Each structure stands twice: as C-alpha cells, then as structure tokens.
C-alpha cells in the first residue's frame, strides 16, 4: 500500500447504525471527485460491502499478488468475495489479524488516494490490529442520535487513547426524518447523540445524515445513493462529508520520511 494513501477506519460502537452504508457512500462520493479509492471490508463476520457495491467477481491472483475487483471506480476486498455463497466465517482472533494483514499487504491497491476500512462494531481484535498495522489510520465514528447508541460509540472512539490514533470526526446517521407533508424534521431516534459523541471525543461532527428509505434500497441494489440520486437530502449530506474528508490532504507533516542530511563541504 502506498504510504501516502490516506486511511479512514469507519467504526461504530454497535451494529445497526448504518456504518457500512456510510462507508460505501463516502467511498463513492470521494471516488466521484476523481480520487482513487479502495475499501477493505474488515467486518469479517458481518461483511456486507460487496452486496452494497454490487460486486460479485472474485479477486484474481497474479504472481502471488491479489488483484481486487472494482465497482463504481472503487477497488474492494472482502472475505465475502473469498467464500462460497453465504457461508459463515469462523475464525479465531489470531486469524483475524492475518486476514487484515493480508488485505493490507498482499492486495494490489495501486496508488490509492484514499482507503476506507469498514471495521466491525466495537473495539475487538480487528480494531486493535488495524491500529498496529496502520497507526496513521484516522477513525470516523458512526452513531445514531439515540443516547444508548451514542454512549457505545463514545467508547468505540475512546480506543484512540490507547492506540494514539486520530479521530477524523463523527457522523450521525438516521439523524432525522423529513416530514412528507411539511418541512419539519422528525427526530425519530432522538437528537443530539452525534454532537454528544463529538464533544466527548474532542472531534468534529462531520455531518448528520437523515433517514432515507432509498439508502436501504440502493444498498440492496448495489448502487450507492450518492451515485443513484445525489440530490436527495441524505446523499447531499454524505457528499458534503466526503468532500470534507477529501479536503484533508495526506501531507507529510509529522511523518518520518527517511531523509539523511547532506553535509556541505
């Protein structure tokens, strides 16, 4: 993997908050800006990225290197592309580390500008392995407005105190439901959860994505909403978040680049 690739690890405290949906749409949004983008589906037991991107082709091997398939301009690797049908994945902790390491080092990513890693919920083996293998990866925390979800998301983000990673920001998904008869916003799942997590983690609130049935429909259809219907409120918010993440140049600040001073004679 190119050392200048910007890596965003998309995390959540619990399942069901739309983490993978956010990951796929952010990837499509950034790719739509002309960037070279890849996704590692690191949710080994609950992989869903291939379905959401409509990827069915298996990775190929060339001279011992794994060449990932691509969809919508996004390269993708997932354990779901390496198993038959809907077979369950049964792996112990050390094997999870090996799989993630292989996805990072044995897959030909090329010169990706951005790599998104869809983490499993919580702070288990995969999250710790990613921190070890890619210490420069920045976390994007996904939560819903609900207090219970926000509290768990805060714990997921607090892992950075141990791993010394940065938090790029917080995304509040299912933030509100547009009233079909007026301009009011209905707080179906409460309000304030995203801002609460952002404040607790001293991170920016990147955006609030409203509830939109088409997000689910497009995920099932394998075409991200930001591509299928970019003018919807949810798509516009996801595009804005993607623009914000894309604007953060990788840069060399704080990185060791292996230069040796030359003495002048």
TrEMBL record:
Tell me the GO molecular function terms: 4 iron, 4 sulfur cluster binding; ATP binding; ATP hydrolysis activity; ATP-dependent FeS chaperone activity; metal ion binding
Domain of life, per UniProt, equals: Bacteria
Assigned keywords, A-Z: ATP-binding, Hydrolase, Iron, Iron-sulfur, Metal-binding, Nucleotide-binding
Locate the residues binding ATP.
13-20
Q: Name one GO biological process term.
A: iron-sulfur cluster assembly
Q: What InterPro entries does UniProt report for this protein, alphabetically?
A: Mrp/NBP35_ATP-bd, NUBPL-like, P-loop_NTPase, YlxH/NBP35
Where does the UniProt annotation place the signal sequence? none
Keyword check for Secreted: no
Per its UniProt record, what Pfam families does this chain match?
ParA
Similarity comment: In the N-terminal section; belongs to the MIP18 family.
Q: Which PANTHER family match?
A: IRON-SULFUR PROTEIN NUBPL (PTHR42961)
What does the subunit comment say?
A: Homodimer.
Q: What job does this protein perform? A: Binds and transfers iron-sulfur (Fe-S) clusters to target apoproteins. Can hydrolyze ATP.
Spell out the protein name for this chain: Iron-sulfur cluster carrier protein
Q: Which organism is it from?
A: Kibdelosporangium aridum
């Amino acid at each position: 993997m190119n050392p200048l690739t910007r890596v965003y690890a998309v995390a959540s405290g619990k399942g069901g908050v739309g983490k993978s949906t956010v990951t796929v749409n952010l990837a499509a949004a950034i790719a739509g800006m002309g960037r070279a983008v890849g996704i590692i589906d690191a949710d080994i037991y609950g992989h869903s990225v291939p379905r959401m991107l409509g990827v069915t082709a298996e990775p190929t091997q060339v001279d011992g290197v794994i060449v990932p398939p691509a969809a919508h301009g996004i390269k993708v690797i997932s354990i779901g592309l390496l198993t038959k049908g809907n077979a369950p994945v049964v792996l112990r902790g050390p094997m999870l580390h090996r799989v993630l390491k292989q996805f990072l080092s044995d897959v030909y990513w090329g010169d990706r500008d951005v790599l998104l890693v869809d983490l499993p919920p919580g702070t288990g083996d995969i999250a710790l392995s990613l921190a070890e293998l890619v210490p420069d990866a920045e976390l994007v925390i996904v939560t819903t407005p609900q207090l219970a979800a926000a509290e768990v998301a805060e714990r997921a983000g607090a892992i950075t105190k141990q791993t010394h990673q940065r938090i790029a920001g917080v995304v509040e998904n299912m933030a509100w439901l547009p009233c079909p008869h007026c301009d009011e916003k209905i707080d179906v799942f409460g309000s304030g959860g995203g801002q609460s997590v952002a404040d607790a983690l001293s991170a920016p609130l990147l955006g609030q994505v409203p509830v939109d049935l088409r997000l689910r429909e497009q995920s099932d259809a394998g075409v991200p909403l930001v591509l299928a219907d970019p003018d919807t409120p949810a798509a516009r918010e996801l595009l804005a978040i993607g623009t914000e993440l894309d604007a953060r140049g990788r840069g060399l600040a704080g990185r060791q680049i292996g230069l040796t001073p030359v003495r002048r004679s």
